[in-house]
Amino acid sequence: MAETGPIINDAPGHEVASARYGRPEGPPGVVATVVQNRGLAVVTAGRGKAAALTRAIAGSFGVELPATPRYVDGGSVAFVGLGPGRWLAVARPAPCAGMEAFLAPATKGLAAVVDQSHGLVVLRLAGPHVRDALAKFVPIDLHPRVLGPGSAASTLAGQLTVHVWLSDDAGTFELAMARSSAGTFWQTLAAAAASFGLLVENPASP
Question: Over 70: is that where the pLDDT of 83 sits?
Answer without folding.
Answer: yes
